[in-house]
Amino acid sequence: MNVSKFNDKFNKLDGNIYTVEEEITVINGVYEAELIHDNVNVKTINIYTGSKLTGDKINTYLTSTPSLTPWKTIIKIFYTMTPLYISYETTGDTVEADDINNVQDAIVDTQNALNSETARAIDRENQIENNLNLYKTTNNAEIQGLKAKDIDLDNKKSDLLYVNGEFNNRYTKDQVFTKDEVLQKIKDLIGNAPQTLDTFKEIADALGDDPNFATTIMNALSKKVDKIDGKQLSANDYDNTEKATLADVNSKKHTHANKNIIDTITQALLDTWNSAYSHISDVVKHITQSERDKWNNGVSIANNANNSINNLQVGGRNLWLRTKDYDAVNDTIWIDNNDATRPDTSFYSVSGTYNGFGVIRICHAWTDLSQNVSIDANTSYVLSAWIKSESASALASLNCYVNTGSTITSQNFTQSQSISTAWTKYYFVFNSGSLTTSTCRFENDNNNAYLICGLKLEKGNIATDWTPAPEDTDSQISTINTTVSFISNRTASLETSVSGINANITTINSNVSSVTSAINSLQVGGRNLVISSQVRQSIGNSTLWNTTDSYFSLTALGNDSYKLQCTTSNKDGCRIVWQSVVQGNTTYTLKINNILFSNTNARGLYVKFLNSSNNIINGDGSYYNISYADTSFASNGTITKQITTPSNATNALFFLGVGGLSSVGDSLTIYNIKFEKGTIATDWTPAPEDMVQKGMTWNDLEGV
Predict the structure, then answer these.
(1) What are phi and psi of 370, to 5 degrees?
(2) pLDDT, tens digit, 9 for 90 and up, residues 526-574
C-alpha cells in the first residue's frame, strides 16, 4: 500500500513570513498545479532551472486564484526542461475542510488496507495448510514407494544367494582334468604300443572286432590234438586202435552217384549259414549291415557327445561391468579395444533400450565400445552380444577380434557376415593364449550403422544368458541402501521441517490473533476534552478555583500551554486545574507533550471523579491519585496516562502542580494538554469549543 503523503502546514503568525522552494516535474512542456502552501505573495514567485535561484530564470508562467478558495494559488508554467524550482513567500497556511477530509480518507484507506492484509494473511494460512496436506500425501506415497523398493531389494538379495549357491556347485580345478592331463592319461594307457596298435580302433580291428577274443582262441585251441613228446604233428603217427578204426571207416565208405546234387544243396546251406552269421542277408532276420553301420555310427556319436560334454567349460560370471545400462557416451569404462582409447563421439550415440538393455548405435567402420579387463592366460572365453543392423538397405558387416589388429577364426563364427535387421545374439569362443588383458570385441568393416547391447564376457566355451557382474549387483545394493538412507534422512528432515512450519504457522496464527486483538482493542477518539478557556489555578487540592491569590500566578502561553509560578513557600502547593465531561466505565487517555519543573520538590497528578450531582464519588473526600509517586515526574518529559472512569462518573477534575516547599517558590510549565476518549494518544488538537470561541483555524495547529 502506498503511504499517504501530507505536506507540512505553516502556522499563521502575525508578522511571520515563510520562504518556500518547490521542486516540480514538467511533462510535455506544461506544468499546472496548486502551490503547496496557501496565502502566497505572487509578487515573490520566482522560477529557475536550478535550486536556490540558480540557473536560468523562467518567465513563461501564469497564476490564478480559485474563487471559492482565495487563499490558494494555481500556477501554469510553459517550459521544456525539467525539473524546475519555484520559490515564493507565504504568511502561513489556511486549514480547510478538504484537509480534514484527506486525513479521514487516509484513515479509511488504512483501515481497508488492514482488512485486506488480514484477509490475505488468512488466505495465506489456508494455502500453507493445503500445501502441507499435499506434501504429507506426497510424502506418504514416497514412503510407500520406498517400502516397495525395499521388498524388491530383498528379492534381489535372494536372487544373489541363489546365484552364489549355484556358483559354489561348479566343478573346481581340482575336480576336473585339463586337456593336457587327459592326453597324459591316454599316453600312460597306450604306453609303448606300436603305431599300428596305438588306438582302440586299431586293436579292435586286429582282434576281428571280437569282444570275446580270448574265449574264441581258447575254444579253437581245445579242438586241436595234443602233441605227444617225440612225435611230430605232420607225421602219420596212429596207434593200432586208430588204424583199425580208420580201416573200418574206409571199408564202410559210400560213394554217392548224385554227389553234384548233394554238393549243390550243401553249398546253399553253407551260404545261408554264412549269411546268417555275417548278418548281411534279410532272409534271416538278425542285424543287417546297415543296422550295424547305424549302430556303429550311434556309438561314435555317443562317444563324441561324451567328449563334448567332457570338454564343456561354463563360466557364467560376466567379467564386464555396467553392461545393463551400457551408457558408453557418459561412462568412460567403455573404450575402443582396438587401441584402448575412447573413440570419436561422432562415431556412436545412445539409441534407446531393448529388453531393458541400454542400446548403443555405432556408425563408423572398425569402431567398438568394449572393456579392457584382466583375464587368465591359456583359458577359453566367450564374448556374446545382441546385435542388429539399423537399415535393411545398408547392412553392417560383423567381425570378431581378440588381439589388437588380429582376426580370430572361430568354429562358431564367420568373419564379415552380414548382420540381420532383427535382434540376434552373436558370440564367439577364443583361447586367451598368452594374453592377460582382454581386447576382444565385435567390429563392423563398413560405415553402415548397427545397434548393440547386452554384452557379456565369460569364461568357458558356452555363451550363457546375460547376467550382470557381481560388482554391479553389489553396487546396486549399495546404491539402494544409500538411497534408502538418504530418503530416510530426508524424511526425518522433512518431518522436522513440517514441525518447524507447523510451529511457524502456530506463531503466525498467534501473531494474527494478537494483531487482530490489538486492532480490535484500539479505541481512537481524537477530540480534545480539555477546554483551554476553563483551565484555572488552585490552592492545594481545593475544588474551588482561585485566581486572586498573590503568591502564585498562571500564565496562558497559547495552544493549551501554561506556566504556573509560585512566588513564595506554600505547603499546600499550587495546581493547574481543569475539568472535563466524561462517560462512566470508559477508558480515556491523557497526554501532556512536555512538563518542565524548576526543582525536585513534591509534585503530582490527581483526578477526582464527580457524579451528576457534582459530588465526589464515594463521598469520602478521597482522591484518585494516579501518579503522585510516579518516577516519571522526577524528570522533565512527556506524560501519557490511561484512565478508566467509574460507572457513575460524569466529570473528571484534574490537578497538576508542585508542592510549593521552596522558600523562593516553584514553577511548573506544561505544553499541549490533551484528554481524549480511547486507548490511543493522538497528536494535540484544540477542543472544538476553543476554536469557536477564539476564531481559530487549522493554521494555528503546529505540525499539521
Answers:
(1) -130, -170
(2) 788 887 655 665 544 444 344 444 545 666 666 556 666 655 455 555 6
Residue 279 burial class via C-beta count within 10 angstroms: exposed 0-12, middle 13-18, buried 19 and up: middle
Output the DSSP codes for 452-468. Answer: EEEEEEEEBSS-PPP--
Which helix (DSSP H) or strand (DSSP E) does residue 656 occupy? strand 651-658
On the CB side of 68, CA atoms within 13 Å amount to 3
pLDDT at 679 > cutoff 70: yes
In the predicted model, what is the mean pLDDT of residues 141-170? 76
Q: Answer yes or no: same fold for 345-468 and 532-700.
A: yes
DSSP state for residue 39 in the 8-state scheme: S
> Which helix (H) or strand (E) element contains residue 352?
strand 348-354
- The angle formed by the CA atoms of residues 202, 206 and 208, to the nearest 5 degrees, is 120
Place of cell 499539521: 704
Helix, strand and coil percent figures for the chain, each rounded to 5: 35, 25, 40
Range of lowest pLDDT (394-408, 471-485, 489-503, 667-681):
489-503
Band of pLDDT at residue 624, cut at 50, 70 and 90: very low
pLDDT attached to residue 31: 94
Asked if 80 contacts 26 with a C-beta cutoff of 8 angstroms, the reply is yes
Alpha helices in 252-330 (DSSP H): 259-278, 289-311
> In whole angstroms, what is the distance from residue 686 CA to residue 701 CA?
8
Tell me the CA distances in angstroms from 53 to 26, 126, 196, one per residue in order.
18, 58, 137
- Strands in 380-389's sheet, in edge-to-edge order, are 348-354, 357-362, 450-459, 380-389, 424-431
Asked if 586 and 642 touch (Cβ cutoff 8 Å), the reply is no
Domain 345-468 has CATH 3.40.50.280: no
Q: How would you label 474-504 residue by residue, b for 16+ Cβ within 10 Å and e otherwise? A: eeeeeebeeeeeebeeeeeebeeeeeebeee
Q: Could you tell me if 337 and 372 are in contact, meaning their C-beta atoms sit under 8 angstroms apart? A: yes
Identify the CATH assignment for 532-700 out of 3.40.190.10, 3.40.50.300, 2.60.40.10, 2.60.120.260.
2.60.120.260
In whole angstroms, what is the distance from residue 138 CA to residue 143 CA?
9
**Which is nearest to 613 in space by CA: 564, 560, 667, 649?**
649
Assign 642 to helix, strand or coil.
strand
What is the biggest distance separating any 2 CA atoms in the chain, rounded to whole angstroms? 211
In Å, how far from its chain's centre is CA 618? 73
- Vertex 563, ends 557 and 567: CA angle to 5°? 140
Domain ranges for the chain: 18-94, 96-170+474-521, 173-207, 345-468, 532-700
Cell 513557600 belongs to residue: 569
272: which 3 cell numbers?
Answer: 545261408
Instruction: Kindly state the cell numbers that stand for 569.
Output: 513557600
